[in-house]
Specification:
- Strands 4-5-10-6-9-8 form a 6-stranded mixed beta barrel. A 6-stranded antiparallel beta sheet has the order 2-12-11-22-23-13, with no helix packed on it.
- The two termini are 34 Å apart.
- It contains 14 helices and 23 strands.
- The chain is α+β, with helices and mostly antiparallel strands.
- Helix 1 packs antiparallel against helix 2, helix 4 runs antiparallel to helix 5 and helix 8 packs antiparallel against helix 9.
- The protein is globular, with a radius of gyration of 21 Å.
- Helix content is 34%, strand content 30%.
Length: 453
C-alpha cells in the first residue's frame, strides 16, 4: 500500500488561509478577519493592537505570523492562546495547520478534531480537516469533512467548486487505494534530459507511450495536455480550479482518472491528473509530472548525473550535505533562504527555468515598479509561464547555512496568488540556475530538502 500524501485529492482543497468565524468570537474580531481575508496584514495587525489581549486575539496574531511565514512565532502564539483558554478553537486550528506543514498527520487530525469540537459551525475547520485526513490516508473521513463543509458554507463559489471536485474525485476513484505506488525496493535510477533549463523524462500512461514529461517539484499535481487526453480517450470525472506558480492565476480545468502512470520501475495506479492547453508548454512536453506523486520515496534530482534517484530509506547526511528544514503546503516544499540578508520561504521548483523573487521580497530589497529601470519585458520563466509586472533586481545573493549562490540580476514577479493559495507568504522560487550543480533531495515525510555537490 502506498503511503503517498493526500496530494492527489486536489491541491485546491486547502487553497486559501481565510480568517472568518461564524460564532461569537467572530463578532469580536470580524473586522480583523475581513482585513486578513483581503491580505491587509498590516492593517489587521494595527487593529489588533487596539484590542484587548484575549485568547482569540493572540490566536489571530498567530495567524498573521503564519501568513508571513514566521512559523515558529505562529506556533508560540497559538500555544499562548491555548494557555489563556484551552477551549480556543482558533489555537487548535493553527497548531493543526503547522502539523500539516510538517506532514505530521496524526497530530494534525487531532488538532483539527479539537477545533471542530469547540466550534462545529466553523466551515474553515472542516475544510482543513479534510486535508489533514487526506494526509493520513483516511479518505472516508475526508469525504465526510468535505460534505460538512459544503453543508455549512454553500455560498462560497470558489471553495464550493473545489470541495465538490474533491468529493467527485473520491467517488470516482474510491475511498481506498488512491495513487497506489508499486516499485522494487531499490528502483533503477530514472534517466532525465536537460533542455531549456528544465528536466524531462519518459513515461507511459495506461500502457501507452512513452511520452515526454517535465519533472517539476513545483507542480501541485500531475497534468497532461488536452491533446494527450484525446489520444488516450480519457473521460473527465470532475472539474475544479488550479493555480500555477507565477502563472496567470486561477484556471478552470477538468480532472481525469488515469489507471496507471509508469516511470522507470515505478508504477502509480489510480491517480487523478489535471490538464493544460497552453500551446507553448505543449511544444515542450506532453505533460508535467509533479514529484509529490513519488513521495513514497526520498527523491534525488541528480543534476550532474542526469537522473532521478529514488530511495525508501533515509540515510544519514554526510558532512558536506546541507539539510534544509522544509514546510509542506498544497504539494509544495518551501525552504528558508536568506536574500541579501532578508529571510524568506522559497518554493523548491525544478520546473522554474530561473530563480525568481516575489514583488514583496523585491520591495524589501528596495525595488518596486516605480524604481527607475526596474520594469522589464520578459517571456516564460517556468513551465507555467507568468503574466504581469516583471522587475529586475540587481546583485542578489542567496544564502542557506552552508551554501551561497550569487546572481548579478534576478527577476521579481507577482506571487500573491500562490501565497494566497497555500496560505503563507512565498518570498520566491528557487529554480534551475540555483540547483543545476547540486544533487537535490526531497524528503516529503521527513519535511526536509538536502543539497550536496
Amino acid at each position: 500500500m502506498s503511503r503517498s500524501l493526500g496530494l492527489v485529492i486536489l491541491m485546491g482543497l486547502v487553497s486559501f488561509l481565510v480568517l472568518y468565524d461564524t460564532g461569537s468570537q467572530a463578532a469580536q474580531t470580524g473586522s480583523v478577519a475581513d482585513l486578513l481575508l483581503k491580505d491587509e496584514i498590516q492593517q489587521a495587525e494595527a487593529l489588533l493592537d487596539k484590542q484587548p489581549r484575549t485568547a482569540q486575539s493572540v490566536a489571530l496574531r498567530g495567524e498573521i505570523e503564519f501568513r508571513r511565514g514566521n512559523f515558529e512565532r505562529a506556533g508560540e502564539l497559538y500555544k499562548e492562546a491555548l494557555r489563556m483558554d484551552a477551549k480556543n478553537g482558533r489555537g487548535h486550528f493553527g497548531l493543526g495547520k503547522l502539523a500539516m506543514g510538517k506532514v505530521k498527520a496524526k497530530e494534525a487530525v487531532e488538532e483539527m478534531k479539537r477545533a471542530i469540537e469547540l466550534d462545529p459551525k466553523e466551515p474553515l475547520y472542516h475544510l482543513y480537516a479534510s486535508e489533514a485526513w487526506a494526509i493520513d490516508k483516511n479518505y472516508l473521513d475526508q469525504s465526510k469533512q468535505l460534505e460538512e463543509y459544503l453543508r455549512l458554507n454553500p455560498n462560497d463559489p470558489e471553495r464550493v467548486v473545489e470541495a465538490k471536485a474533491g468529493l467527485e474525485m473520491l467517488k470516482a476513484l474510491g475511498t481506498t487505494d488512491v495513487a497506489v505506488v508499486t516499485a522494487p525496493e531499490n528502483p533503477v535510477p530514472i534517466r532525465v534530459r536537460k533542455a531549456l533549463n528544465l528536466i524531462f523524462t519518459q513515461l507511459t500512461l495506461n500502457g501507452r507511450g512513452p511520452y515526454n514529461f517535465a519533472v517539476d517539484t513545483g507542480a501541485t499535481q500531475t497534468v497532461i495536455s488536452e491533446k494527450l487526453v484525446a489520444e488516450l480517450g480519457l473521460q473527465p470525472i470532475a472539474s475544479t480550479v488550479v493555480y500555477g506558480i507565477g502563472g496567470a492565476g486561477k484556471v478552470d480545468t477538468k480532472l481525469y482518472g488515469v489507471k496507471e502512470i509508469a516511470v522507470g520501475d515505478v508504477k502509480i495506479k489510480n491517480i487523478p491528473v489535471g490538464t493544460f492547453n497552453d500551446p507553448l508548454v505543449s511544444q515542450l512536453a506532453d505533460g508535467i509530472l509533479g514529484t509529490a506523486a513519488l513521495s513514497d520515496f526520498i527523491i534525488t534530482v541528480n543534476y550532474p548525473a542526469n537522473q532521478l534517484e529514488l530511495s525508501r530509506t533515509r540515510q544519514p547526511a554526510p558532512a558536506t550535505t546541507e539539510v534544509l528544514p522544509a514546510w509542506y503546503f498544497s504539494n509544495l516544499l518551501l525552504v528558508p533562504v536568506s536574500v541579501n540578508g532578508k529571510q524568506g520561504n522559497f518554493i523548491v521548483d525544478t520546473g522554474a527555468v530561473t530563480t525568481v523573487l516575489s514583488h514583496n521580497m523585491a520591495a524589501q530589497l528596495g525595488i518596486n515598479q516605480n524604481t527607475p529601470g526596474a520594469k522589464i519585458d520578459l517571456g516564460i520563466a517556468g513551465v507555467g509561464g507568468f503574466e504581469g509586472i516583471v522587475l529586475k533586481v540587481p546583485n542578489v545573493t542567496f544564502k542557506t547555512a552552508k551554501n551561497t549562490e550569487t546572481f548579478p540580476q534576478v527577476v521579481a514577479i507577482d506571487l500573491k496568488q500562490i501565497s494566497k493559495m497555500i496560505g503563507t507568504e512565498v518570498a520566491g522560487v528557487v529554480g534551475y540556475d540555483f540547483f543545476s550543480e547540486y544533487k537535490l533531495s526531497l524528503d516529503y515525510y521527513g519535511a526536509e530538502v538536502r543539497l550536496s555537490k
